[in-house]
Amino acid sequence: MKNLTVVDHPLLKRDxxxxxxxxxxxxxxxxxxxxxxxxxxxxAMRTLDLHLLEIETPLETTAGYQIADEVFVxxxxxxGLGMVDGFVRFAPEARIGHLGMxxxxxxxxxxxxxxxIPGGIEAARVFVVDPMLATGGSAVQAIQHLKxxxxxxxxxxxxxxxxxxxRTLNDAHSEVPIVTATVxxxxxxxxxxxxxxxxxxxRIFGTE
Length: 208
Description:
By secondary structure, the chain is an alpha/beta fold. The protein is 32% helix and 30% strand. It has helices at residues 10-20, 26-44, 81-88, 137-148, 163-172, 200-205; strands at residues 4-6, 50-56, 61-67, 71-77, 95-96, 98-103, 110-116, 125-129, 132-133, 153-157, 160-161, 178-180, 182-183, 186-187, 193-194.
């Protein structure tokens, strides 16, 4: 699988185990997802460009750095909202867009219902976030929507990916890197990831 980074970190493995457990309470699920998203964000933002500048320490002048890229974080609603805080821990200046999509239970295809994208996305580094990359349909559609708004530099970040979703996203947007905590075994007949962690949106918001 090309353009795929599976983040190998002990804390992320621990957090993923908590998130997979059926009995994990909603509040613990939300906090753990945010913590796991921060680890993924740390890795995903490794390729941000830096700007060199001169600063004064208490003792002398030295070189320093600041992030040169403008950072946009775009969650795919609703479950993607659970990952935003993890990103803004490291990039509090990030601008936040929103893309609302739901899966048609008959066709398994994504359907748009909301879009709010800040201006200036054309030159930004855009991190599209969603806990699950299952069929890949929502990810493909979200990135195409953002391309239509002028965005050009993307990373897709998810907690759990299915092989089918990785292939679909690679086929549609071969230049887009994917950062994830794990690639699970497969999709079931209802297009849920196995072993997965269930419906992330329901578990974040307590709507099971």
